[in-house]
Amino acid sequence: FTGTTSGSGLWKSNGTPSGTIEMPLGPGVVASNDNAYITTANGLVYFFASEGATNDLYVTNGTVTTKLLDCNASSLFPLNLLTNFVELDGYVYFAVGPNSSPQKELWRTDGTPSGTVSVASLFTPIVNPLSVSNITVCNDKIFFSGTLNDGNELMMLDPSTLKTTKHDKLNELTVFPNPSDGNFTVDFDFIEKASFSIYDLLGKKVAEGEIIDKKIHLSLKSGIYILKIEYENQYYSKKIIIRE
Fold first, then answer.
1. I need a labelling partner for 98 at 20 to 30 A (CA). Which of 20, 77, 123, 129 fits?
2. Is 67 strand, coil or helix?
3. What is the C-alpha separation between 135 and 84, in angstroms, rounded?
4. Model pTM above 0.70
5. Which of the following CATH numbers is that of domain 11-161: 2.60.40, 2.60.300, 2.40.128, 3.40.47?
């Protein structure tokens, strides 16, 4: 939860006074004191925090904190969060835009910097409703108010229509054994080259390469990771476990 203090402003608690402590976020980083701007998904905590003149999106596992959306490096500077977070199928959705403009866009994140994107960029052709607000989840779909042509309207997003969802063929892909000692087999008939990336649960890329003879060989310490496979401009993601 968040609260107004002279420190980071982000707190965690185990339900006891001694276990209620303020979390270190890094020099000059202060979390928003509005609890509408903090949420959890996949065991991670997402929140907005200011660092100097900017408001950026961060994720933390309670120990390590990572910046997901750097507004100094984007057209969103200075960022203005318009609405609260909502979570669906492992993605966190939110609306952001520059303070100087009312044109707030719908974004989502999978907990990695590369997976923090404008939802409009995931459509073909691009569809970009503006002035997004009042985001909510119902029946596995995202509902929100936004503007396309003639004023504010009720809109619905079906995440299964986004181009980052699995290709029909990739739905047949399997990875085994899982857990393993770091040696995985990808059961799929690849015609072209397929590449893979491995991320830890904080979204940091820890390995990458090509799938050769349906094999992936990893030299990583024991833990839980996210495997992402790219093939013919389609993507497949799976949680994998490495045990020594």
1. 123
2. strand
3. 7
4. no
5. 2.40.128
